[in-house]
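Before relying on records like the one below, remember that each one covers exactly one chain. Contacts with other chains, cofactors or solvent are not represented anywhere in the record.
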Amino acid sequence: MTQNIFLIGAPVDSGKRTRGCLMGPDAFRTAGLAEALGTLGHTVTDLGNIAPDDVPPMTHANPAVYRIAETVGWTTALARAAIDTAPKGLPIFLGGDHALALGTVSGMAAHAHSVGRPLFVLWLDAHSDYHTPLTSETGNLHGTPLGYVTGREGFDAFPPLVAPVPTENLCLIGLRSVDAEERSALSRTDADLVDMRRIDEVGISAPLTAFLERVAAADGLLHVSLDVDFLDPSVAPAVGTTVPGGATVREAHLAMELLCDSGLVTSLDLVELNPFLDERGRTASLMVDLAASLLGRRVFDRPTRSYA
C-alpha cells in the first residue's frame, strides 16, 4: 500500500550533553531516505527542519536537568507538527536525540484522541526512557519521553497532555540498560517489556507479533520510535549511548518487515543518529534501509552496500 509520507527534520540536541545529533536529519537525507521510500511508490514530501518554540529560560528543582527550556520548546513544536501532518499521511520525524519523542508521541496521542482511536507505542531502544526530570540523575531529558507521555509526575514545566498514553499500550523491545529507579517504576505498570534475553530465548517475532495483534484488536494507531542504540554498536556505531548486545541487522529487518505486514504503523521516529560518530555513513544507511523495510522493501529488493 502506497502512502503519503512527510519527512520532518527535528535537529534536537538538547536532550543530552553529547553533541552531534543536530546533524542527524541531514545525514538521513544524504543517505537517500526520500529516494528509498519514493522508489517503493510512496509520495514523499520533505517539510525541511522545524525549530523549537521560544520558551523563556527556567530553572528546575533538580539542578542536574539540562537545557529544559529548549526541550520544552521542541516538545510544543513537534507536538504541533504531529497534529498537523498525521491527518494527511504518515509523518517520519528525523532526529535529533530521543527527547524529540516528548513532542512526537504526545502529538500523535492528541491526534489519536481527536479521531477516537487509542495510540500504541513501540519503543525500539536499549533504554526504557521512563525517567522524569525529578528522578533523572544525569538530567538528560532524552531519558524521559515515556515518563512524560504516560503522565508520570514531575513534568510541570511541560505542556499538559491532551491524552496520556496508557502504559498497557506500550511495548519496549531491545532493553538492556535500565536504571534501578526506572526498573522499579516500570514493574508497577503493565507495559510489555522485552529485553535482549527474551529475544535471545524466543526471538523477536513472537513478542512483536503478540503486541501487533493487540493493536489491531483495539483498532489502534501505532507510533514506532526507533533509536539507533536498539541496534548493536558493531553494526550501528553512530550513537552516543552505545550498549553492547543489541539487535542484529537481521533481527531489526525482521521487526520492520513484521510492522510492514501489519499495516498498522501511522508515524515513525528515527532518532539518536550522531553522524560525527559514524563510519562512512554506515549507520545512516542502515537506518534508511530499516525504514525502507518498514515501508515495503522486501528481502530480495535490498541493495548491496560497499563501504570500501
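The chain is about 35% helix and 15% strand.
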